[in-house]
C-alpha cells in the first residue's frame, strides 16, 4: 500500500504527465507538490509567475531562503542556471504563449472542460492571480484536484455554477480516483483507481463522461 497522502499521490501522477524539455507553471496547492516528483533524469523548466524559471523541489525544513518563493509565497529552491525576472516579463511569457503546460487546482470543472478556480460566492476574494492568463496562454492545462470538497460535494460537474476562470480550457484532470482527458467538448475516462468502480465514480461525478475502450488502472509507479 502506498505511503503517499492523497495530495501527494495526485501530484506524483501529475508529474508523470510532464513532458521532457517543457516549460511548466505550477499553481497553488496540490500543483506545488508536483516539483517534488519530477524524476532527476527528466529536464523540465518550472516557472512561477512572480519571476523565476528553474524552480526546484521544496527546500528542506530549516534551509528555506525567504527571498526564493513561488507565487503563493511558499519557499522553493532554484535549480542551477535558473533565471530571475520581473513579474511583467513573467506575464509577457505567459500571455505570449511561451508556457507549455500549466498545472492548477480547481473548485469546479465541467464536463466540457470549463474551469472555475478563483472565486467562491459569499467568501472573501483575494484576487484572480495569474489563473486566467495561464489557462488561456498555456498549450496544455492539467487540473490536479481531490475529487470532492471537504464537505463531500462533487467538483466535477455538468456545468459550473460559480464564476468561471475560462471556458473549455482543461486538457486533463487528475484526482485520487481517476484520470480524465477532454477532447471535442467531451470528458473521457482514461484511468480508474483499482479501489474504485465505475458505479462509485458515477455516484461522485455528476458530469457525463465516456469510458475509454482502452481504460487503464490508475497508477503512480
UniProtKB/TrEMBL annotation:
Matching InterPro entries: 3-oxoacid_CoA-transf_B (IPR012791), CoA_trans_fam_I (IPR004165), NagB/RpiA_transferase-like (IPR037171)
GO molecular function, one term: CoA-transferase activity
Record key words, sorted: Transferase
Entry annotated with the keyword Transferase: yes
PANTHER family: KETOACID-COENZYME A TRANSFERASE, SUCCINYL-COA:3-KETOACID COENZYME A TRANSFERASE SUBUNIT B-RELATED
Similarity-based family: Belongs to the 3-oxoacid CoA-transferase subunit B family.
Stated name of the protein: 3-oxoacid CoA-transferase subunit B
Organism expressing this protein natively: Peribacillus castrilensis
Amino acid at each position: 500500500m502506498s505511503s503517499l497522502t492523497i495530495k501527494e499521490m495526485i501530484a506524483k501522477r501529475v508529474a508523470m504527465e510532464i513532458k521532457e524539455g517543457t516549460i511548466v507553471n505550477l499553481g497553488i496547492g496540490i500543483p506545488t507538490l508536483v516539483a517534488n516528483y519530477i524524476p532527476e533524469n527528466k529536464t523540465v523548466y518550472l516557472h512561477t509567475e512572480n519571476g523565476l524559471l528553474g524552480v526546484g523541489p521544496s527546500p528542506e525544513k530549516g534551509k528555506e531562503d525567504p527571498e526564493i518563493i513561488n507565487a503563493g509565497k511558499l519557499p522553493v529552491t532554484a535549480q542551477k542556471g535558473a533565471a530571475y525576472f520581473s513579474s511583467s516579463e513573467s506575464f509577457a511569457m505567459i500571455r505570449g504563449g511561451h508556457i507549455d503546460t500549466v498545472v492548477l487546482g480547481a473548485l469546479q470543472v465541467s464536463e466540457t472542460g470549463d474551469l472555475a478556480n478563483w472565486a467562491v460566492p459569499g467568501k472573501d476574494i483575494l484576487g484572480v492571480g495569474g489563473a486566467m492568463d495561464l489557462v488561456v496562454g498555456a498549450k496544455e492545462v492539467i487540473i490536479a484536484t481531490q475529487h470532492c470538497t471537504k464537505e463531500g460535494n462533487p467538483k466535477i460537474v455538468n456545468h459550473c455554477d460559480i464564476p468561471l476562470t475560462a471556458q473549455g480550457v482543461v486538457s486533463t484532470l487528475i484526482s485520487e480516483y481517476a484520470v480524465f482527458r477532454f477532447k471535442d467538448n467531451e470528458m473521457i475516462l482514461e484511468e480508474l483507481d483499482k479501489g474504485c468502480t465505475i458505479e462509485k465514480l458515477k455516484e461522485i461525478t455528476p458530469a457525463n463522461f465516456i469510458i475509454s475502450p482502452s481504460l487503464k488502472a490508475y497508477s503512480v509507479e
